[in-house]
Amino acid sequence: MNEQCGWAGKILRVNLTDGTFSDVDTMQYVPKFVGGLGVAHKIWWDEMPPGIKAFDPENKLIFMTGPVTGTASPSSGRAEFVSISPHSYPEQYANTGIGGSLPTYLKWCGYDGIIIEGKSPVPAYLYISADGPELRSAQDIWGLGLVDAQEILHDRHGENSSSYGIGPAGENLIRFAIIGCGIHSATGQGGHGAVMGSKNLKAITVTKGKHQVKVADPEGLLKTTLKFGPIRKPMPVYDMDLADDKTNPFWDRWTGPDRKPNFSINWMGNVHNKPFKFLSHSCGLGCYASCGFFEFKNVPAVTEPKLIHAMTGCNHTRYEQFFDRENETVPGENFRKGLEIHELAQQLGFGHFDIIYGFVPWLYYTKAMGLDTESKVGMPTDVRSNVWWIKLLKMIAYREGFGDLMAEGIRRTVVELGEDEYAHPIYEGPEAAREGNWPKVRLPLAPLGAWGYTSRSLVMEMPFPMGMPGLLNWLIETRDPHHSKWPDWAHKRFGEWMATEKDHYNSTFPLEWARQSTIRGTLLDSLTACFQFPLRKYMGMEFDYDEVGDGSETTSMEATLFSQVTGVNVTEDEFFEYGERINTLFRAIQIRNHSRTADMEFNELMPRLYDAYDKDKFKITTQNWYEYLGWDRETGWPTRETYEKFGLKDVADELEKIDKLPQK
Predict the structure, then answer these.
(1) Radius of gyration, alpha carbons of the chain
(2) What DSSP state is assigned to residue 505?
(3) Using CA atoms, how far apart are residues 39 and 29, in angstroms rounded to an integer?
(4) Coil, strand or helix: which one is 304?
(5) Residue 493 host element (H or E)
(6) How far apart are the C-alpha atoms of 347 and 349, rounded to whole Å?
(7) Residue 507, CB half-sphere, CA atoms under 13 Å: how many?
(8) Which residues is 444 bridged to in the sheet?
(9) What would the pLDDT profile of 506-522 be if each residue is shown by its tens digit?
(10) DSSP string spanning 439-458?
(11) For residues 448 and 458, what is the distance between their CA atoms, to the nearest angstrom?
(12) What is the crossing angle of helices 333-348 and 146-157, to 10°?
């Protein structure tokens, strides 16, 4: 590598306490840790000792782009936040992704990332331009909705600016608060918005600079990118019902060309948006797919005289699914109810999953099972009433009454109330969002995965043995592994394994499937690129380029783009090893900072599997999984040999000093 390509070369360090700035040399971390998540892990290992809690001023919030950010590389408009997550149970270091144009704008200002530390004495926002960084007062926008505040910042700083920010949920330290990019993108899981709130940081605004990201092989990158370009379809304004599979052009994308039923159909199963038109919208720059998010403008609200501008799509359509056409007298009125609630949740700055798959179904199911959660909330549960929804969301966002406990997240709520009564009993009946002719469901009252996150129920959604690779990913994470680290369960090899394998518990297939998806996801979050890239065939995306891969068993395209952008020429196997290094360092952080062990992980996961898995046999599977990764079977800790294989001898030495390295 004769010149610096891909990376801008410096990371901005911001001390909110004293208002000072400094630069950190990116090149001390790369190419060894790639960028994005990998560099964030390395900074965290070097700078963050154990014992720090999510809302302590000493907690850092790190934002990192990757080497392909700001280039023509497909799906390269995303970036990663890391911090001690208040959402995780117990609090642990976790990452979360976000899109929008800010990652690219930051790169064009000459920065690869931002390290935020300390706490501002007054509400502030960070402004970055070609002239450098500065902290500005946020007194005038503190308390405003996430989207409303960013509109003010956009007006203030112009068309070439982009902002990330928080709403009242983040300001009030709701543990599942998001960092959002207007209506279009958000961090989702992890509660990193509450970390921003704890630092009195309302927003980060970046005005596009003129720093050009150098590309080592621009001709090669262009050729690779154009393999996607010709088969990208135009995304005009659509005038049809999303629930109509005959006219909706996205239906095949959700189901695949053979139109086999899968979970994707349920995303739009009863979202009747007529007569309102929509625009297919991507969550970040460089997107070559637009995987299923739809922007609506000028939709009249129901409860107040205003027009709604909001997005829905993917799992978030559950807001609208709670209001289908049953008992509708005015066309589109029920859709307006759902979209109004959706907009409010985004303005307040909630992580949507904990609302639409967590608390609202939980309140519906507990009522059906005869548990009196209504008196705790202070009103009758009516999930078909938009007025009820609005009261509930505001109660949580402002920590009013029972909302103060719900603001701690559903895992902490049911722990406080008693999991044996409020979490584990099995509910059987209509699904909360879909009454009528939809199939009945069988779910725990609180549909929890591991580490405090809502999952729609681990084993009810993917029964044995289908869920096994995903469970292994859950085991070693600090948050849910959905999106970038989720195994491709629709691949034909997966189906063959389920149908023909005689001993699923002792098979190496789920170990390899989980490893591939874990490392591949780690690399995508380090480049950084969207989890849909190279596009997964199980999503039904209309791409037929052979090297795109099947979603989890190839990283060849990622290796090619990394080489073409940075000039660090690597093979697929070499690039995969970069991912293994980054994942091993993440494991070291878990062990040193959060005392993670195999027993802790098994005891966390097993109660959420109910009777779907044989406890003793699955214990052996988890031990096989650790060993497959080069970790000790009994402790779940990587061996010295593994650390040194990936160039992490110094990490092994530090862990040995605190007796957290396996004994030979």
Answers:
(1) 24
(2) G
(3) 6
(4) coil
(5) helix 492-500
(6) 5
(7) 20
(8) 426
(9) 999 999 989 988 998 89
(10) PPEEEESS-B-STT-B-S-H
(11) 7
(12) 70
